[in-house]
């Protein structure tokens, strides 16, 4: 750990996603400054892109603070959409499809925001658009089990067990 302070202009973007519409750059901050129970990152979202699929968390709560953007963003939240601009603060509590969220850059300039989330040892996410879920154990850097599947593939509790 370098210390409890870092300036955003000194960050390295260590998570670069380039997957069609899902394109962004993220710089992870939390571990770098010694955070234990909160995760922090700086995200840059190019025009016309989204950072991740529409999803909700059952364990981690998230907050986003829009640093730069000229009315160039949109928050998809549950069944509604909200315009975003510089200095907006977004709360994404835990729950199901009613709090699923996604930030979209609808403008012509990069959208830059700070993301803060609680860190939990067990996380389940739902992806309402695709009917998927993910289950993850462990904290960043210490991940254990990770599984992504479809809710439709559910099996009986005793399926595959010897009886």
Write down the Rg.
17 Å
What's the count of strands?
13
CATH class identity of the domain at 11-120: Mainly Beta
Structural class: mainly beta
Shape: globular
State the order of secondary-structure elements, H for helix, E for strand. Answer: EEEEEEEEEEEEE
Query: Counting H and I runs of at least 4 residues, what is the number of helices?
Result: 0
Briefly note the CATH topology name of the domain at 11-120: Jelly Rolls
**Order of neighbouring strands in the sheet with most strands:** 1-2-3-10-5-8
Largest sheet: 6 strands, antiparallel
What is the beta-strand fraction?
Answer: 35-45%
* CATH structural architecture of the domain at 11-120: Sandwich
Distance linking N and C termini: 52 Å
Helix share, percent: under 10%
Mean pLDDT: 94
- Identify low-pLDDT runs: none
- Say which CATH homologous superfamily of the domain at 11-120 is assigned: Jelly Rolls
Write the layout of secondary structure elements.
Layout: E1 15-19, E2 22-28, E3 38-45, E4 56-57, E5 62-68, E6 73-77, E7 80-84, E8 89-92, E9 101-105, E10 111-118, E11 122-127, E12 132-137, E13 146-150
Antiparallel strand pairs: 1-2, 2-3, 3-10, 4-11, 5-8, 5-10, 6-7, 6-9, 11-12, 12-13
Walkthrough of the structure:
This protein has 163 residues and is an all-beta fold. The chain has a domain at 11-120: Jelly Rolls (Sandwich). It has no helices and 13 strands. The strands form three sheets. A six-stranded antiparallel sheet has the order 1-2-3-10-5-8, with no helix packed on it. A four-stranded antiparallel sheet has the order 4-11-12-13, with no helix packed on it. Strands 7-6-9 form a three-stranded antiparallel sheet, with no helix packed on it.
């Amino acid at each position: 750990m370098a210390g409890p302070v870092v300036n955003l202009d000194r960050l390295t973007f260590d998570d670069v996603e380039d997957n069609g519409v899902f394109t962004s750059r993220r710089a992870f901050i939390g571990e770098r400054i010694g955070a234990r129970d909160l995760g922090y990152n700086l995200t840059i979202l190019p025009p016309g892109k989204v950072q991740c699929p529409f999803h909700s968390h059952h364990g981690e709560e998230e907050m986003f603070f829009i640093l730069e953007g000229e009315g160039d963003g949109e928050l998809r939240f549950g069944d509604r959409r909200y315009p975003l601009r510089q200095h907006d603060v977004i709360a994404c509590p835990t729950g199901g499809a009613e709090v699923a969220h996604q930030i979209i850059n609808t403008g012509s300039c990069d959208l830059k925001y700070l993301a803060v989330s609680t860190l939990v040892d067990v996380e389940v996410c739902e992806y309402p658009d695709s009917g998927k879920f993910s289950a993850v154990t462990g904290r960043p850097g210490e991940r254990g089990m990770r599984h992504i599947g479809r809710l439709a593939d559910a099996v009986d509790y005793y399926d595959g067990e010897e009886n």
